[in-house]
Design brief:
Elements lengths: L2 E12 L3 E4 H4 L7 H8 L3 E4 L6 H16 L8 E5 L10 H8 L6 E5 L5 H14 L5 E9 L9 H4 L4 E13 L7 E9 L7 E3 L12 E3 L1 H22 L9 E4 L4 H10 L11 H4 L6 H11 L8 E8 L3 E8 L1
Parallel strand pairs: 4-5, 4-6, 11-12
Antiparallel strand pairs: 1-7, 2-3, 6-7, 8-13, 9-10, 12-13
Helix pairs in contact: 3-4, 7-8
Bound molecules: oxa(dethia)-CoA.
Oxa(dethia)-CoA binds next to helix 2, helix 6 and helix 7.
Length: 325
């Protein structure tokens, strides 16, 4: 049986120039480098410059991904941009990226699933490709969380950073087996009852302000380890695979302890988990493509390997995307 698979043709990433260390944060709030590293694994984060917007970060990552794929903007039919920090309430930040790329074809829109946004966006783009409606899609995760942080709240402001990552997906024929290259499956979940554990206390329809991020971190932590282990098992079972078959897990980079806890629950050696949270902190929808791009660029992820991406975030939302690179 012949099927259409969304094959990864290229990837790229962008981090703003300005680096903020834990020691710098310790001058703003009552925290320490020791506490942050021990509880989260984070050493530093990147912060967007004054006037540098989510669309700027997204554009740079998208341009890098297109370059890596050897393609031009007009080779792309669709842009799906995952973000919880759009430039403006509307239009979609994806359309700004489309304009900056001078892309005259296709269509562009945003997806909002906070930290799971990139996995959701991959799933959306994959379905457009599998249906035959588009041939190639640019899938971007980009955030400027520094703009929605309460810099007086030490329980949240130390955890997040700004950044962007992107991939180019291309429809190619596969045999319909797990040996095919490209996305093998995506699984998405949400449970709106957990709104109060992780949300932003503002928005156009409620307070007419942008608001600040609020989180009950330890409750989110407990849900994250359980949901992420479940969603990994779900992806493996759906494809008739076991944890041993996985070459790499590319998780949402929120906290090193969550990544270690999930790997332990699955009996997966930590050497097969891509960890980049130490140098860019939690970049929400950007974290999976940032980690993916780093591991591809440094030669860890190679063609033909089995890669499982997973994420969990506000909503709650969570999900996985299993791919053969
Ligand atoms: O990406 C979306 C998903 N988000 C996440 O996955 C985040 C999940 N949660 C976490 O990563 C962790 O829960 C945190 C890193 C947020 C917190 O770690 P924790 O081990 O759960 O700590 P805690 O919240 O239980 O706080 C322990 C102590 C508290 O002091 P007391 O009450 O024991 O005296 C906090 O006030 O640590 C204190 N604390 C801090 N101390 C120094 C909280 N934040 C800080 C800080 N510096 N920045």
């Amino acid at each position: 049986m012949t099927v259409i698979r969304s094959v990864f043709r290229g990837c790229g990433a962008y981090l703003p120039e300005r680096v903020m260390t834990n020691d710098e944060l310790a001058k703003i709030v009552d925290t320490s480098d020791d506490w942050i590293q021990e509880r989260t694994g984070i050493k530093q984060r990147h912060i967007a410059a004054e006037g540098e917007m989510t669309s700027d970060l997204a554009f740079n990552a998208a341009a890098a991904a297109l370059d890596n794929a050897g393609l031009e903007p007009d080779d792309i039919d669709l842009i799906v941009l995952a973000t919880a920090t759009p430039d403006e309430t509307f239009p979609a930040t994806a359309t700004r990226v489309q304009a900056r790329l001078e892309m005259r074809n296709g269509f562009a829109f945003d997806v909002q699933a906070v930290c799971s946004g990139f996995v959701y966006a991959l799933s959306v783009a994959d379905n457009f490709i599998k249906s035959g409606q588009v041939g190639r899609a640019l899938v971007i995760g980009a955030e400027t969380f520094s703009r929605i942080l309460d810099w007086n709240d030490r329980t949240t402001c130390v955890l997040f950073g700004d950044g962007a990552g992107a991939v180019v997906l291309e429809g190619q024929e596969g045999k319909g087996t797990s040996d095919d290259r490209g996305l093998l499956s995506t699984h998405l979940h949400s449970d709106g009852r957990h709104h109060d554990l992780l949300y932003v206390d503002g928005g156009p329809s409620s307070t007419r302000t942008t608001g600040y991020l609020r989180m009950e971190g330890n409750k989110v932590f407990r849900h994250a380890v359980v949901n992420l282990a479940d969603v990994v098992r779900e992806a493996l079972e759906a494809n008739g695979l076991t944890p041993d078959d996985l070459d790499w897990i590319v998780p949402h980079q929120a906290n090193k302890r969550i990544l270690d806890g999930t790997a332990r629950k699955l009996n997966l050696p930590s050497e097969r988990v891509i960890i980049t949270v130490d140098h860019h902190a939690n970049t929400s929808a950007a974290s999976v493509p940032l980690a993916l791009t780093e591991a591809v660029d440094d030669g860890r992820i190679t063609r033909g390997q089995l890669v499982l991406m997973e994420a969990m975030g506000g909503g709650f939302t969570w999900g996985s995307a299993l791919a053969r690179w």
